[in-house]
Structure formats: C-alpha cells, structure tokens
Design goal:
Number of helices: 5
Strand order of the largest sheet: 2-3-4-1-13-16-15-14
Oligomer: single chain
Largest sheet: 8 strands, mixed
Structural class: alpha+beta
Helix content: 10-25%
Strand content: 25-35%
C-alpha cells in the first residue's frame, strides 16, 4: 500500500514538472508579438481636368440700370446677341453680356441676369460676392483709379465701411510696393475691388481699360469650400488672406494660371451665403471626364447633366456647398 501510494505521488509530481517545463519552454520560445502598423491612407481623389473661369454672372433687379452702370461707369462694352457664345444665355432669364474694352478682351465676361419671376429687389442686394478689376495705371501718381472710385460713388455705388476705402498704396499682405487698392459697392451692393499696378510692374500687357482679374464668392465655411473647389472642381489653392475687421479669404488660382483668379470669402458681419443669384462659368477641355469625376465624388452637387447646345458646345451645371451655380462648358470645336 505504501509502495503504490509512493508511485502514484511520484508520477503526479513528475507529470506536474513536465507541464511546468513545457509551459516555460513554450513561453520562452514563442516569437515576440508583431507591432500592428496601420495601413497607409489613400490620398483623396483629385479632379484632373483643369478649368478656366470664362464668365461670372450676377443677378440684378433692374437690368437696364445695371447695364448702364457697368458700361458707362466701369467702362465695359455691351455685346450684341450673337457676339457671345450661346452657353451664356440663361433659360428663363433676361441677360446682358459685357466684356472689357481691353485689346483682346482680357479677363472674364460679365453676365447681368434678371429673373422676371422674382419681383423682390432685396433678393439681388447685399450679396456676399465681389468683382476684382485691374485698372490702368502709369505710376503711383496716376489719377485713373481715383477717378474710377469716385465715378462708382457718383453713379449709384456706395462706400465700404465708415469713411469708405478709397484707393491707397498697400505694402501689407505681400502686395508689391506701389500697388494701389480700393473698394466700393456697386448700385446693388456687390463689392467692386480695384487694383492699379504701375506700368513698370506689368510687362506682358499694357492695361488700357478695366478688366476682371478676380471673382469672389461668399461661403459659409472656408475649409469645406476650399476642399470642394480644389479637390472636386479643380482649382488650385494659392493663399489665405485676412482683411482685418472685414473678412477672411482663401485665394484660388486656375491650374494654368489663366485669369481671373477666384476668392472664397467669409465675412465678420452676418451674411446670407445660401443660394445667391451668382454663377460662375468654367470652361474645360473635356466636360465628360470632368462630370464623371463629380458624379463619382459629389453626385448630390450636380444640378443639370451635360447637354449639347445648338452651337455644339457641351454644358452642364453643378452647385457649390452653399448653392452657388457653377456652369461647366466644353466650348464648341
């Protein structure tokens, strides 16, 4: 009885030692845990079809008065029917198309549009958008830009801020020395910014008449709109700009460098950024490919699919995040 008990105890202890040794050997020989490396994030998809801003349209309550202002005060030329492409005609709208008198008609065309179904003039006023004009300038003492500013105020425009913002030489925000900048509102409250560069600074062209070199669109969220206009619509980020006590801006350029540039603006004062009567016309070399990308990345932003116009141009429409219409055009061959 004693021998059997001894054997049993020995066998149990031997088995226990083997178990402990096996566990120890197993734990010591197991490979170390591998560090989990997160997979690299795919970069966001990017529009590759490069747009150029061909025209900007602004809604006005009185088409004749607006034509008179931009023709006689700003100095643009009213184009006759047939002198401009058919894609600038807006269905259901009364329109007038103006272009710069500058040789070669540099810059974007301006389309004034009035919806006869809207009788409330307030719909067209105090919108958070702007037109930026380059004006002739020989040197820092050239009075053209001062006369330009005074004419706006004398013909239905109004001052910006207390005391107005007449042209002055600016050296802040990276502006080259000698550039004169002023701002005023047109007769419907659209912001008109004027830039006068001394002739010595501009070697590629002699500025003889004002033309549009920038277009500003009010947006409710600068970060989201920057992503939409660069990634989805194909513009290129240029810079951030702070206009103290007035607005914050994000400046965008076209991929080719063609003017006009574009500015996204968010004001310190309360503004209505939604569904304003403003549209931009982007021309592209391949509208089908452009729309395919928008369809894949932001299908809810498409307003009108591509259609072929009588001239052979292809045209469709998308909207930005605040409802501003962007017309996409592939011009006729």
């Amino acid at each position: 009885m004693k021998i059997n008990l001894f054997l049993i105890v020995s066998i149990v202890l031997f088995g226990f030692c083997l178990f402990v040794m096996g566990c120890s050997s197993s734990s010591s020989s197991a490979p170390p845990a591998q560090e989990q490396i997160p997979p690299e994030e795919e970069p966001p998809a990017q529009q590759t079809v490069a747009p150029v801003i061909n025209a900007v349209s602004i809604g006005v309550p009185d088409l004749d008065a607006a034509v008179e202002f931009y023709r006689d005060t700003i100095g643009m030329e009213l184009l006759a029917d047939g002198d401009y492409p058919d894609y600038l005609n807006q269905e259901g709208m009364n329109v007038a198309v103006l272009a710069s008198r500058q040789a070669g008609r540099r810059g974007a065309m301006l389309v004034l549009m009035n919806d006869p179904a809207i009788t409330d003039a307030a719909y067209y006023t105090d919108n958070p958008d702007k037109l930026v004009f380059i004006v002739p300038c020989v040197d820092e003492n050239d009075p053209y830009v001062d006369n330009f500013y005074s004419a706006i105020l004398a013909n239905g425009g109004s001052e910006v801020g207390n005391g107005g913002t007449p042209p002055e030489t600016r050296t802040d925000q990276g502006y080259p020395a000698g550039v004169r900048i002023g701002m005023a509102y047109d007769l419907n409250g659209y912001l008109v910014e004027m830039l006068a560069f001394p002739a010595a600074m501009i070697t590629s062209v002699t500025v003889t008449d004002p033309y549009i070199i920038g277009v500003g669109i009010g947006v409710s969220n600068l970060s989201d709109s920057r992503d939409y206009y660069t990634r989805i619509l194909g513009m290129v980020y240029s810079a951030d700009l702070d206009v103290p006590n007035f607005m914050l801006e994000v400046e965008l350029a076209t991929p080719s460098g063609a003017r006009p540039n574009m500015v996204l603006m968010h004001y310190e004062a309360t503004k209505d950024y939604t569904d304003n009567p403003v549209r931009l016309v982007f021309t592209v070399p391949d509208a089908g490919k452009y729309f395919d990308f928008v369809e894949a990345e932001a299908p809810d932003q498409i307003l009108k699919p591509l259609a072929t116009l009588p001239s052979g141009a292809k045209s469709g429409e998308v909207k930005d995040l605040d409802g501003t219409t962007i017309q996409i055009v592939q011009p006729a061959p």
